[in-house]
Specification:
The chain is of the alpha+beta class. It has two helices and four strands; from the N terminus they run E-H-E-E-E-H.
């Protein structure tokens, strides 16, 4: 998986922050095909005011492109680390939902084919 990490606002990309994001992204890599080299994750870490007058509120955003889909997740939290954790969990949930949807469609189609061939029985 190729990870593009971008910081904006008053966020500074430190080595500790890069390692933290990479560690959390391993949870997503586990769900995806390890042989797929076209998987790309664009991660943006930023600060926002979210309507408040003082202090920073952190925003994390993931745009994940993989074979068979695209997932976008965004989280706004009080700390940067918590925002990253929340956005990764949201992306994992969306990936699982996407795979579940595909599995359901496949099973539904297989059931219709099976029902069709049952009509050809010799009884």
């Amino acid at each position: 998986m190729h990870i593009n990490l971008k910081a904006s606002g008053s966020v500074v990309l430190t080595e500790e922050l890069r390692e933290f994001v990479a560690e959390k992204m391993r949870k997503i890599e586990h769900l995806l095909d390890s042989k797929d080299t076209s998987t790309m994750a664009d991660i943006e870490l930023a600060t926002t005011t979210r309507g408040q007058k003082t202090g920073d509120v952190f925003r994390a955003e993931i745009n994940l492109q993989f074979a068979g889909g695209f997932v976008r997740a965004e989280a706004i939290e009080e700390t940067l680390h918590h925002a990253v954790e929340v956005v990764v969990e949201e992306a994992r949930r969306e990936i699982r939902k996407s795979f579940g949807r595909k599995r359901t469609l496949m099973r539904r189609g297989a059931t219709k084919i099976k029902d069709f061939f049952r009509g050809f029985g010799g009884s």
